[in-house]
UniProtKB/TrEMBL annotation, chains A, B:
PANTHER family: GUANYLATE KINASE, GUANYLATE KINASE-RELATED. It is found in: Cytoplasm. ATP binds at G12, P13, S14, G15, A16, G17, K18, G19. Residues 5-183 form the Guanylate kinase-like domain. One of its GO terms (cellular component) is cytosol. It comes from Natronincola ferrireducens. This is Guanylate kinase. CDD domains: GMPK.
Amino acid sequence: MDQKGLLIVISGPSGAGKGTICKSLLNANKDIKISVSATTRSPRKGEVEGKNYYFISKEQFEEMLQEDALLEYAKVYENYYGTPKNYVLENLDSGNDVLLEIDIVGALQVKEKFKDGIFIFILPPSLEELKNRIVGRGTESDKDIEIRYGCAIEEIEQVIKYDYAVINDDIERATRDVEAIIKAEKCKVSRMHNNIKSIL
Amino acid sequence: MDQKGLLIVISGPSGAGKGTICKSLLNANKDIKISVSATTRSPRKGEVEGKNYYFISKEQFEEMLQEDALLEYAKVYENYYGTPKNYVLENLDSGNDVLLEIDIVGALQVKEKFKDGIFIFILPPSLEELKNRIVGRGTESDKDIEIRYGCAIEEIEQVIKYDYAVINDDIERATRDVEAIIKAEKCKVSRMHNNIKSIL
């Protein structure tokens, strides 16, 4: 297969479970590369530098912005989040599939640059369940919970800008949906020119 | 799920193995309805009326044509083939997925009417393997084999008019590809409006 790697963008509102689905996807598909974002927010309990995020200062982040070293970035809840460009581009060029787990604002920036990417929106089964999950996480203040939940409806309306939506009613089932989407995208005629040429 | 059923069109050159893949797909997915074509050609050994085809006379076929009772039809190797319209439309309206296994000429007619259908082209792993399979089937005369193989290259070039291509190097693997395509298509945002509305 000569085709370049796929850019897989997984996005959705806080509490929809995009992080859990990405973890489950990566566990079952060791060949997919995960892009680690940079952020200026403080680490949550248990988060590891270079695995969950690159935790950097506001000054460092703004330097990366000036150097055009970010694929996308967003200021969400007073913190910067961004995707370092090099890692993604190098892996795609080498034919590796790259997974981005990013917020909606960032995802839509990437979509403008990567028409060929696969944009998947993770939906909660209901708004009630979404709130339960944000509360249940226990990592945020009451104020943060209200801010996140308040944005959810507005965020979910952005789903129409995505290619695919996966309802996260069950992690295993939702992960199988994402895997099917990736497999199907690789069967798109527009991505198979080299295979077809080699048959003929 | 309020969404209507999916129209799944599986097509490709003779010998690519579309029949075997369809059989394998239906075995594993009992809820998919298969549309049985009508034809004026003679039954091959083992073919069953109403299961493989409706074997009808030329006069009967032309009557259906006049009554606009066919979704598509084609004259291939001097015989008519066509898809009775009622069965397909009724099942799609009831929310059932319907599978059409048809020749390329017919598939492209369906594509003009059903923009929403999923058009999957089954490719052989190589032209050599394609010829081996046509010969190995042992149901056709030497002349028929030459006619079918001679058309193969021209037919394979039609793949660019399809949405997806699946290489049939292994029946099981190819069937999993088709299943992934169906699952992914159901996750398309354009097909999920009702689900999204019910969440909001």
